Amino acid sequence: MQKEYGSNFCEELQKSGGLLEDSDGRLFFDSGRSALRYLLDFLGARIERVLLPQYDCESVLEPFIERNYRISYYPVDRYFRPCGKELRRLVEKEKPQLILVQAYFGFDTLADERDFLADIRKQGVTVIEDITHSLFLSSLKDCSDYRFASLRKWCAIPDGGILLGPQKHFPSVSPGMRENTEFVTERIEAQRQKREYFARGDGEAPKGFIALYDRSEALLDIQKNYYTMSLYTRERIASLEREKIISSRRSCYDVLKGALSQVPYIEIIYPDLPENAVPLYFPVYISPDKRDRLRLRMREKGIFLPVIWPLPTVLGETVSDGVRDIYNKILAIPCDQRYTGKDMRFIADVIKQEIELC
């Protein structure tokens, strides 16, 4: 069977025997961005001024821009921690009614600011936490009024987003909200074709699933409405093996850390793996003159290394030099539950070979 590293999930999940349902303070959507759009509409016209991170995905920033808020942006440092002094200055100067925060890559990069965020909540500032990267983090101090996440980043479900808030706070949305049928259908078919392609092992066959994945993502990119999570995913998501996801990712991270610790041109951002951390990727910094060439050479060998997010055009010149440096140097190496220590050593060996040639 052929193998590919770091691209879209395609493992088939079986029905779990249960059905994931919305409940008080917990709603499920087709995507994280749907959950966010729903939340912002739920909060309504009382929000006018917002404070957002400079390092973020453009698809997360867009719902705020669409609603014509007055937006300010705060910087993060090279370890993705909010720059505390600047964050406090902006809170005092801009007096935001809402702040968006995020812990990145499965590490609690908000740890130093959680008490401050809890304090400003008491002053009436609404804090929204994007928990997409920190979905499996444990023992976190609560600092937010609402939390949302994309679930698709972690496993092989065609759709999935979640919104969490105070109990009895949201109306039940599922009965009146449609599934994102076109998106889910394309995603399921893409996963099916990819599974079959790699099971056959005929590397010369056309990869029709790539166009399906691209088309499904394009549908999300132009979407402005929000949709409920599909029945297909609701019937299967409980079959995910949470403990396997956690242990596999931590184990793969440790292997990569050992294999890449002394490699020239690569800086490991988090050389230590705290007990509560569950990595989404193995993030590193690589000089810009090598990064894109390395990505291309690795892609040719079936190893996909995302930059996570390109610099959003909406930020323009507002981004600090330090955050611009992050956008230019960041590279993410897959370390998820599909792979073994042997896979990680293989990826590390290929990186070591190819980076010298870039």
Structural commentary:
A 7-stranded mixed sheet has the order 1-7-6-5-4-2-3, with helices on both faces. It has a 3-stranded antiparallel sheet with strand order 8-9-10. Helix 1 (32-43) runs parallel beside helix 2, helix 8 packs parallel to helix 11 (341-355) and helix 9 packs across helix 11. The radius of gyration is 20 Å and the shape is globular. The protein has 11 helices and 10 strands. With 358 residues, it is an alpha/beta fold. The mean pLDDT is 93. The longest helix has 20 residues, at 181-200. It starts with 25 loop residues before the first strand and ends with a helix. It has helices spanning 32-43, 58-66, 84-94, 114-122, 181-200, 208-222, 231-234, 242-260, 288-300, 321-329, 341-355; strands at 26-29, 49-53, 70-74, 98-102, 126-130, 146-150, 161-164, 266-268, 282-286, 330-333.
Keywords:
11 helices; alpha/beta; 10 strands; 358 residues; single chain; 13% strand; 38% helix
> Which spans of ≥5 residues are poorly predicted at pLDDT below 50?
none
Structural class: alpha/beta
- How big a fraction of the residues is strand? 5-15%
The number of helical segments is: 11
Helix content range: 25-40%
Mean pLDDT: 93
Q: Give the strand line-up of the largest sheet.
A: 1-7-6-5-4-2-3
Q: Describe the biggest sheet?
A: 7 strands, mixed
Distance between the first and last residues' Cα = 30 Å
Computed over alpha carbons, the radius of gyration is 20 Å
Order of helices and strands: EHEHEHEHEEEHHHHEEHHEH
- Strand count: 10
Give the oligomeric state of the chains in this entry, treating copies of one chain as homo and distinct chains as hetero: single chain
| Global morphology | globular
